[in-house]
Write a structure and sequence with these properties.
Helix content: 40-55%
GO molecular function: glutamate-gated receptor activity
Radius of gyration: 55 Å
Strand content: 5-15%
Shape: elongated
Distance between the termini: 174 Å
Membrane topology: Multi-pass membrane protein
Domain Ionotropic glutamate receptor C-terminal: 417-791
Largest sheet: 8 strands, mixed
Biased composition (Low complexity): 880-892
CATH class of the domain at 18-135 and 279-370: Alpha Beta
Number of helices: 32
Region (Disordered): 880-902
Strand order of the largest sheet: 2-1-3-4-5-13-12-11
Length: 926
C-alpha cells in the first residue's frame, strides 16, 4: 500500500513538473536500516536537482540466506519496469540477482566485498555488475602495506569466517621462508574469547589482526583488556571498514595501539550534508534518526554514492537519447532485454566520480580499483584520529609530522613510571654501600653508569622510573631447544619491564625479540690477559745475553789464542829484536817481549775493544792477532746489542698478541661469559679462526665459560698466564683501570654497541633514542664514562704505571740489573788495593834492608813522604829521622859513596817495571 502511495505521489509530482519517472529497485536485508535511509534520501537529493527525470525507488526485503525469495523479488522488480537494482549486501543472495540482471541486461549495483572467483573473473558474467566496495585484492594490499610499514615481523590473525580469511590473502603472503611464523586463530560462536586470548598472550605475541564482524570487535577487546592484552606494547589492526562506527569510549584510554581503516573522510562537507538530509528527512516522517558523520557506515556511504553515480549516467545518456523504462519478465518464453542497460553500465565503468566515499574509478570488470583509505588510530582525547592516507598509487602517506608524533609521545610520558630492568655488574650497576645508620630503598639502593644514564634521560623526557634486578642475572639468550629467552630479554617479553639497561649488546638475534634505542656506547670484543711477569732481579743480569757455554768457549778461546800467540812469537824470527833500537845490526844478543803476560794482555785488550801499545811483528802472529780482533769485534757487538734488550725484556712463560695466537696454540685456555653476546659472536661466526676458537672453547674440560665478567677476571688473575678471557672492550677497560697486573691483548675483533632494550614496537623508542642522542651531543655520555671508568672506585690507579711502562718505550736499566758490574769493579778495586798495600810493604822492607834501618823507621818515612802531597819529586833514598843520628853518621859516608850507584839502580828498576827498556837511551844520552 505504501509503495503505491509513493508511486502515486511521484507520478503526480512528475506530471506537475513535467518529469519522466525512472523507477529503480533496491533489495535490503532487515539490518540495513541506515543504508536504506541513505538510499532514499540520496534519491530525494537527486530529484531536487533534476529537471527532466525523477528516480522512483522500489524497495524489497529479503533475508540474507533466502535465495529463493530473493529470486522472486527480483522478478517482481523487473516486472515493474525498474531500470537498475541496488543490493543486496549478502554474497549468497547477490549472486542470484547478478545472474538475472545479466540475463535481461539491467544494471546491478552492489556495495559489499566480493572476492575474485576461482578461475578468475568472467567478463560475460560481470558485464552488468558494478561494485562500489573496494576491490578485494587492492584492499588486501592496503592491509599488507600497513603491516609492512609497522614492521611487524610476526603477528596473529583472529578471524571468524572463511570469507574473512580470504580478505587477508595478500597479508598471508607477507610471510617468507625465513620469517617468524604467522599464527591464524579462528573464533567460534562462543561468547568467551578469553582462553584464546590467553594462549596468544602466553606465546608472547603482541601484534594482532582482527578480521571479525563489527559486532564482535568491542567484546573481543573488552575481554582482551581483562586478560592484560590491552597494554601499551600490544598493537591491533582492525580490518573492518566499519570499526570507526563503534563506541570505543571505554577503550580509548587503554595503552595499546589500535589502528583501523576508513573509506570516507568524516570531516568532508559532502558527508555532513548527507547526514543532515537523513536526519531532516526522517524528522519529516515523524521519526527520530541520529548519526554523526564520524559514525556513518561504509555501506550507507556507498549507497549514497551509487545513487549519485547512476543518476549522473542517466542524465548524461538521456541528453543524447531518451531513456525509457520497460516492464520485463523473468520467464523464458517472454524473455526480453532492456536496450539501455548495457550502455548505462559501460558509461559508469568509464566515469570518474568523487563521492562521500572518496574517488570512484572502475576497471573493465566493474570493480572499484582506485580509492583512498584513511588510516585512523584510537586517540585518548579525540577517539579515532586520522594519521595517514593510503591509495594504490602512492601507498601510505602520513598526514602528521614526525614532530607531532614525538610531541604526542613525550606528552604521554609525563607522570608515567617506567619499570627499568637491569643486572648487577660494575660499573653499570652496583649496590650502594650503606653508611652507618643509613637505610636504602627503591632506586637509592643502586649506583653506577646505568642509573645515571636513565636518570639523565628521565629528566629530559619527564618520566619516573623504578629500577629492578632481573631474577636470573642474565643478559638474554635464546634456547633453541626450549624456544625461550632468558635474562633481560625474557623480562621484557613477559611485560615485566618497560626498559632494560646495562651493558646489553645490540645483536641481530636479540633484535628479533626486542627493540633497541640508538647505541649509547660503542665497543668490540677483545682479550683480557695477565701482564708479562718480569724475571727476578739478578745482580749478574749483564751476563745473561750470553749463555754459560758461550762464556766458557770465550774463555777457552782467550787462553788458546794467548798460548798460540806466545808459541808462534817464540818461533818467529821477526819478534826477536835488539833491546836498543839504535843498534839493530851489531848486537850480541836480542830479546823477545812476547812473554806469556804480554800475550794475555794483548788478547784481553782486543776483546775489551781498547787495544794494546805493543803489537806482533811476524806474519803468523799478526794473522792470529787479526783473527782474534775480528772475533772480539763480533762478540762485543752482539753482546752490546743484546744486553739492553735482554735486561729490559719482560719474559713470560707463553706470549700472545692476538686472537690468532690463541687459536694456534693449546697451552693457554680461553673462554667467555656463558649466554652472552661474546659467546654468540664466536658460535655464529663464519671466520675460520673464530670457528676454531669456538670449537676449542666448547670442547675444553673443565669448562672455560664463566657466569660473569668478574669470574672471568678472577680466573685470569689466578691462571698465571694460562687463561685468557674474551670480553667486551668497555668492561675490559674498566678492569684494567683497576687491576694493573691485567692488560688488553690485541685490538677489537668486532664492532657493536650497547643499547636500551624495550618491547617490540614500543612507542617510546624514538623519544628515548632522541634523549640519548642529546646527551651524546652535550658530552654527558663521555663525562659519565670518564667518571665511572677513571675516577670512581679505584679508577686511574694504573695510569702512572702505564706511563712508566708504555707499550712502545723500553724500561731503563736499574741497579738491580747491572749491579753485578759494579760489584765486579769493586772486587777488582779491592784486589788492586790489596796488591798495592802488599807492594808498598814489600818496598818498605826493601828500603829497610838497603838503608839498613828498622822496618818501622822505613814505614814511617815512606808514609810521611806519601802523605805529603806538596812534594812532586822523590829522591832515590829518603833521609831518615834524627833519632838515628848515631847510625846516620856511620852511614853517611856509605850513603854518599853509593848515592850515584843507587840512583842508577832505581832508574833501571823503574824502567824494568814500566817496560821502558826501549827508552833507556834517553837517559844515557842525557
Amino acid at each position: 500500500m505504501v509503495r503505491f502511495v509513493v508511486l502515486f505521489v511521484g507520478l503526480v509530482i512528475c506530471l506537475a513538473e513535467g518529469k519522466r519517472e525512472i523507477p529503480i529497485g533496491a533489495i535490503f536485508h532487515g539490518d540495513n536500516y541506515e543504508s536504506e535511509i541513505a538510499f532514499k534520501y540520496a534519491i530525494e537529493r537527486v530529484n531536487m536537482h533534476e529537471k527532466h527525470f525523477e528516480l522512483t525507488p522500489i524497495i524489497k526485503y529479503v533475508s540474507k540466506d533466502d535465495s529463493y525469495k530473493t529470486e522472486r523479488k527480483v522478478c517482481e522488480l523487473v516486472s515493474e519496469g525498474i531500470t537498475a537494482i541496488f543490493g543486496p549486501s549478502s554474497m549468497l543472495t547477490s549472486g542470484i540477482v547478478s545472474s538475472i540482471c545479466k540475463t535481461i541486461e539491467i544494471p546491478h549495483i552492489i556495495t559489499h566485498w566480493d572476492p575474485e572467483p576461482f578461475g578468475g573473473w568472467d567478463p560475460e558474467l560481470q558485464a552488468m555488475t558494478i561494485n562500489l566496495y573496494p576491490e578485494a585484492d587492492v584492499l588486501s594490499r592496503a592491509l599488507q602495506d600497513l603491516i609492512v610499514d609497522y614492521t611487524w615481523k610476526s603477528f596473529t590473525i583472529i578471524y571468524d569466517s572463511d570469507e574473512g580469511l580470504m580478505r587477508l590473502k595478500d597479508v598471508l603472503q607477507i610471510h617468507g621462508p625465513g620469517d617468524n611464523p604467522i599464527t591464524v586463530r579462528q573464533i567460534d560462536d562462543s561468547p568467551d574469547y578469553r582462553p584464546l586470548l590467553k594462549d596468544i598472550q602466553s606465546s608472547g605475541e603482541s601484534h594482532i589482526i582482527l578480521e571479525v564482524h563489527p559486532d564482535k570487535i568491542l567484546e573481543i577487546l573488552r575481554q582482551a583488556k581483562e586478560v592484560k592484552m590491552l597494554e601499551e606494547y600490544q598493537s591491533y589492526i582492525i580490518t573492518s571498514l566499519d570499526a570507526h562506527t563503534l563506541d570505543f569510549e571505554e577503550l580509548k584510554y587503554s595503552r595499546s595501539n589500535i589502528t583501523t581503516l576508513r573509506l570516507m573522510d568524516t570531516k568532508s562537507f559532502d558527508i555532513k550534508n548527507a547526514v543532515h538530509d537523513w536526519e531532516q528527512g526522517e524528522a519529516r516522517m515523524k521519526k527520530v534518526f541520529r548519526v554523526s558523520p564520524e559514525h556513518v557506515h561504509t555501506e550507507s556511504a556507498l549507497y549514497h554514492d551509487a545513487v549519485k553515480l547512476y543518476a549522473t549516467a542517466i542524465r548524461e545518456l538521456d541528453a543524447t537519447e531518451e531513456i525509457t523504462p520497460s516492464r520485463l519478465s523473468c520467464g523464458s518464453k517472454n524473455l526480453r532485454q532492456w536496450p539501455f542497460g548495457l550502455r548505462i553500465v559501460n558509461y559508469m565503468k568509464v566515469k570518474t566520480e568523487h563521492g562521500i566515499s572518496g574517488p570512484i574509478i572502475f576497471d573493465d570488470y566493474g570493480r572499484r580499483t582506485h580509492f583512498q583509505l584513511d588510516i585512523i588510530e584510537l586517540n585518548h582525547q579525540e577517539g579515532f584520529k586520522k594519521i595517514a592516507v593510503w591509495d594504490p598509487t602512492n601507498g601510505i602517506i602520513y598526514t602528521r609530522s614526525q614532530e607531532d608524533v614525538h610531541l604526542q609521545i613525550v606528552e604521554s610520558l609525563h607522570n608515567k613510571t617506567f619499570i627499568v630492568a637491569s643486572r648487577l655488574g660494575a660499573p653499570f650497576l652496583m649496590m650502594k654501600e650503606k653508611k652507618e645508620g643509613e637505610f636504602l630503598e627503591g632506586n637509592n639502593r643502586f649506583e653506577g653508569y646505568s642509573v645515571e644514564l636513565i636518570d639523565g634521560i628521565s629528566k629530559i623526557l619527564g618520566f619516573q622510573y623504578r629500577m629492578e634486578l632481573v631474577p636470573d642475572g642474565k643478559y638474554g639468550s635464546y634456547n633453541k631447544e626450549t624456544k625461550r629467552w632468558d635474562g633481560l630479554v625474557k623480562h621484557l617479553l613477559d611485560r615485566k619491564a618497560d626498559l632494560a639497561i646495562c651493558d646489553l649488546t645490540i645483536t641481530y638475534e636479540r633484535r628479533t625479540a626486542v627493540d633497541f634505542t640508538m647505541p649509547f656506547m660503542t665497543l668490540g670484543i677483545s682479550i683480557l690477559y695477565a701482564k708479562p711477569v718480569p724475571q727476578p732481579k739478578d745482580l749478574f743480569s749483564f751476563l745473561s745475553p750470553l749463555s754459560l757455554d758461550v762464556w766458557i768457549y770465550m774463555a777457552t778461546a782467550y787462553l788458546g789464542v794467548s798460548v798460540l800467540l806466545f808459541v808462534l812469537s817464540r818461533m818467529a824470527p821477526a819478534d826477536w829484536e835488539s833491546p836498543h833500537p839504535c843498534k839493530q845490526d851489531d848486537v850480541d844478543e836480542v830479546e823477545n817481549i812476547w812473554d806469556m803476560l804480554n800475550a794475555l794482555w794483548l788478547t784481553m785488550g782486543s776483546i775489551m775493544g781498547q787495544g794494546c801499545d805493543i803489537l806482533p811483528k811476524a806474519v803468523s802472529t799478526r794473522v792470529v792477532s787479526g783473527m782474534w780482533w775480528f772475533f772480539a769485534l763480533i762478540m762485543l757487538s752482539s753482546y752490546t746489542a743484546n744486553l739492553a734488550a735482554f735486561l729490559t725484556m719482560e719474559r713470560m712463560d707463553a706470549s700472545i698478541e692476538s686472537a690468532e695466537d690463541l687459536a694456534q696454540q693449546s697451552k693457554i685456555k680461553y673462554g667467555a661469559v656463558l649466554g652472552g653476546s661474546t659467546l654468540s659472536f664466536f658460535r655464529n661466526s663464519n671466520f675460520s679462526t673464530y670457528q676454531r676458537m669456538w670449537a676449542a672453547m666448547e670442547s675444553t674440560r673443565p669448562s672455560v665459560f664463566t657466569k660473569s665478567n668478574d669470574e672471568g677476571r678472577d680466573r685470569v688473575l689466578k691462571g698465571r698466564g694460562l687463561y685468557a678471557f674474551l670480553m667486551e672492550s668497555t668492561s675490559l677497560e674498566y678492569i684494567t683501570e683497576r687491576y694493573c697486573e691485567l692488560t688488553q691483548i690485541g685490538g677489537l675483533l668486532d664492532s657493536k654497541g650497547y643499547g636500551i632494550a624495550m618491547p617490540v614496537n614500543s612507542p617510546y623508542r624514538t623519544a628515548i633514542s632522541g634523549a640519548v642522542l642529546k646527551m651524546q651531543e652535550e658530552g654527558k655520555l663521555h663525562q659519565l664514562k670518564t667518571r665511572w671508568w677513571k675516577e670512581m672506585y679505584g679508577g686511574g690507579r694504573c695510569d702512572e704505571h702505564a706511563t712508566k711502562t708504555g707499550a712502545d718505550s723500553a724500561a731503563e736499566l736499574g741497579i738491580d740489573n747491572v749491579g753485578g758490574v759494579f760489584l765486579v769493579l769493586a772486587c777488582g778495586c779491592f784486589c788492586a788495593f790489596v796488591l798495592g798495600i802488599l807492594e808498598f810493604l814489600w818496598n818498605v822492607r826493601k828500603v829497610a834492608v838497603d838503608e839498613k834501618v828498622t822496618p818501622w823507621e822505613a814505614l814511617k818515612a815512606e808514609l810521611k813522604f806519601a802523605m805529603n802531597i806538596s812534594i812532586t819529586t822523590k829522591p832515590v833514598h829518603s833521609m831518615l829521622s834524627e833519632s838515628s843520628s848515631a847510625k846516620s853518621s856511620m852511614r853517611s859516608a856509605s850513603r854518599r859513596g853509593s848515592e850515584s850507584v843507587g840512583r842508577m839502580h832505581n832508574i833501571k828498576t823503574g824502567a824494568s817495571l814500566m817496560n821502558m827498556d826501549k827508552i833507556g837511551f834517553v837517559f844515557n844520552n842525557k
